[in-house]
Specification:
single chain; about 100 residues; 4 helices; 3 strands; about 55% helix; elongated
Amino acid sequence: MATKQESASLLEAERSKSKPPRQYKVVLYNDDYTTMDFVIEVLQTFFAMNRERATQVMLKVHQEGSATCGVYSKDIAETKVAQVSAFAKQRGHPLRCELEAT
């Protein structure tokens, strides 16, 4: 029968082995058809950005070709990509949104 001290050291060893979940960036890509206003709306709606921050990110997408909208666990990043993609398609915009491992 294990003592409390042995059990505690086993639990500590198991805890030290676990790593934080891998993080993923959600990235928007520039295209020639999606309006700047729509990109700002997406950033405010799905990434909880205020208008000023959304405008800054939109300009980065426009000028540099892409920008990171946020960094999340895999499940959340996949959900954000799916939501943005469906919203853009529903509104007739070809906005591309993907996740990338950090």
